[in-house]
Amino acid sequence: MGKSGKQNKSAKTVIPFGPQHPVLPEPLHLKLVMEDEIIVEAIPAIGYVHRGLEKLTEIKEFTQNVFIVERICGICSVMHAQAYCQGIETLMNIQIPDRAKYLRVIWAELHRIHSHLLWLGLLADAFGFESLFMQVWRNREKVMDIMEETAGGRVIISVNTIGGTRRDMSPEALRKVAVIADEIKEDMKQLEKVFMADYTVKHRLVGVGVLEPDLAYEFGAVGPMARASGIKQDLRTTGYAAYGELDFEPVIETGCDSYARTMVRLREVYQSVDLIKQAIDKIPDGEISVPVKGMPNGEVISRVEQPRGEVLYYLKANGTKNLERLRIRTPTFANIPTLLKMLPGSELADVPILILTIDPCISCTER
Amino acid sequence: MIENAFDISKELLHVEVEDSKINGYRFVTATCVDLGDGTFDVIYHFDKDLELKNLRVNVKKEDELPSISNIYFSAILVENEMKELFGLNIKNIAIDYGGHMLLSDEELDAPMAKQQIVIEQRKGDK
Question: Which of A50, A233, A334 lies closest to B74 in CB terms?
Answer without folding.
Answer: A334
